[in-house]
Amino acid sequence: MRRTRYFLPTLKEAPREAQIISHQLMLRAGLIDQHCAGIYSWLPLGTTVLQNIADIVRQEQNKVGAQEMIMPTIQSADLWKESGRYEAYGEEMLRLQDRHGRDLLYTPTADEVVTDIARNHLKSYRNLPTLVYQIQWKFRDEIRPRFGVMRGREFYMKDAYSIDMNEEEARASYKKMMTAYVRTFRRLGLTAVPARADTGPIGGDLSHEFLIVAQTGESELFYEERLEDLMSQEDDHVDVDDIMSIYAATDEIHEADKCPIPADKLKVARGIEVGHIFYFGTKYSESLGLKLAGPDNTTIVPHMGSYGIGVSRLVAAIIEASHDDKGIVWPESVTPFKIGLVNIRVSDEDCTAACDTLYEEFKAAGITVLYDDRDERPGVKFADMELIGLPWQVSIGPRGLKDGFVELKNRKTGEIQELSLEDITTKMQEHFGR
Ligand code: ATP
Ligand code: MG
Q1: How far is the CA of 208 from the centre of ligand 1 (A)?
Q2: Is CB count within 10 Å lower at the N or C end of the chain?
Q3: CA 372 to CA 306: how far, in whole Å?
Q4: Which of 84, 135, 79, 140 is nearest to 108 (CA)?
Q5: For the structural domain made of 3-324, what CATH number should be given?
Q6: CB–CB of 387/320 below 8 Å?
Q7: Secondary structure class of 85 (helix, strand, coil)
Q8: Are both 3-324 and 339-432 of the same fold?
Q9: Ligand 1 centroid distance, CA of 294 (Å)
């Protein structure tokens, strides 16, 4: 993409309303535009990151056998009245009416709808286990939307639902999802700590929240150090039982001397909740009358679970976890472009010719590249590149070019290499496996 053609409105200063670094950087790097309180437009650069994250989430859901579907954002209130949550959900639910005066709402979650679909279409225990998910916009009229997309009112969420014939099978589905979550957060370059969560008054007894360690996190987090290594290792291997056996919790209540974690292994931190998995038993199958034919002429009431990932919140959480004083540092797995190509002097014919050639070569190799071909001062271009945080910067100026060199900079380490025009393409192709 040529920068002169690309809609990327970067800002030198962060608007004053932005309190935390991710919100400041998301505005400055032209990822989002605030529409009104808690509601944002995603500009091209932000949209690409959001979709890259959604793709990783999707791939890992598919890998454990979850099937993607799409449920409506506007839902009939009738179903929610049936489950009892139309009243119970409270002020966070955005309620609407159509022209006939029928009550509708904007989905804050889809447990009711998925249970309705199941009762309409599943007939027998042989249809189980059923594991489905969607990646869809949600709306919750948060009392205090803040920190940009971190706590928005409209936000993008992956929500999965499991339907199983009994508790044992439901626990197996839960573990599958746990596995998918561990892999997802690893691929996003994050260390997410799975903390045992309070299952609240609605029962079930199995629930974990996944939290990213960050100073700006809203929750206090207590966990055993070893979890960090298990969660951030680089391969696909997940030992769910081991992970679930390690203690981690938010909002600890016991006294220090009763802590199950030895003092020298205890970590206390702030955490951002990016995911939540929840086994809730027969809550919705009972309230909405989901019954299936079981074996030997029996009837079964399926056990269900729901599994959320805050996809739009993750954009902010990744920035909280990965930035420096110059800007964002995108992990390669989610970066909007792999390479930023800087033409240091567009008025120089050789320089521009070399940049154009390299730009075409990267594109031909399937490596995404943002080419800063603007007639701007180099300082402005470099500052922008640092701000938007692409993992690799290639810059070409008349002086280096005369000696046959271009510069390759690693955004994360700051390391700079001088390479020939031929070597740079090969190096990047090898690096990205093209
Ligand atoms: P929180 O305690 O942060 O309000 P929650 O418990 O209400 O979260 P869930 O209902 O479990 O959240 O939703 C699943 C995921 O959706 C959360 O883990 C979080 O990542 C994301 N999420 C929830 N509310 C918001 C919001 N207002 N803005 C952005 N993401 C959100
Ligand atoms: Mg909430």
Answers
A1: 13
A2: C
A3: 44
A4: 140
A5: 3.30.930.10
A6: no
A7: helix
A8: no
A9: 35
Which atom from ligand 1 is nearest to the alpha carbon of 142?
A: 27
> Who lines ligand 1 at CB under 6 A?
140, 142, 151-152, 155, 157, 273-276, 308, 310, 312-313
Residue where the block lists tokens 């729901």: 306
Instruction: Calculate the alpha carbon distances from 273 to 214, 216, 219, 249 in Å.
Output: 10, 11, 8, 12
User: How many A from CA of 310 to the centre of ligand 1?
Assistant: 6
How many residues make up the chain in this entry?
Answer: 434
Pocket of ligand 1, candidates 211, 273, 307: which has the most ligand atoms within 8 Å of its Cβ, to mutate?
A: 273
Residue pLDDT tens, the chain, 434 long: 999 999 999 999 999 999 999 999 999 999 999 999 999 999 999 999 999 999 999 999 999 999 999 999 999 999 999 999 999 999 999 999 999 999 999 999 999 999 999 999 999 999 999 999 999 999 999 999 999 999 999 999 999 999 999 999 999 999 999 999 999 999 999 999 999 876 555 445 699 999 999 888 999 999 999 999 889 888 889 999 999 988 888 876 677 777 888 889 999 999 999 999 999 999 999 999 999 999 999 999 999 999 999 999 999 999 999 999 999 999 999 999 999 999 999 999 999 999 999 999 999 999 999 999 999 999 999 999 999 999 999 999 999 999 999 999 999 999 999 999 999 999 999 999 97
Residue nearest to ligand 1 atom 2, measured at CA? 273
E-state strands within 50-187: 67-68, 74-76, 94-97, 103-106, 130-139, 154-164
Task: Check if the beta carbon of residue 411 is closer than 8 Å to that of residue 390.
Answer: yes
276-309 burial, b if ≥16 CB within 10 A, otherwise e? bbbbbbbbbbeebebebebeeeeebbbbbbbbbb
Token output for 394: 């290639």
**CA angle centred on 389, ends 383 and 392, rounded to 5°:** 100
Assign domain 339-432 one CATH number from 1.10.3470.10, 3.40.50.800, 3.40.47.10, 3.30.565.10: 3.40.50.800
User: What is d(CA 297, CA 208) in angstroms, rounded to the nearest whole number?
Assistant: 36
What are the residue ranges spanned by the domains of the chain? 3-324, 339-432
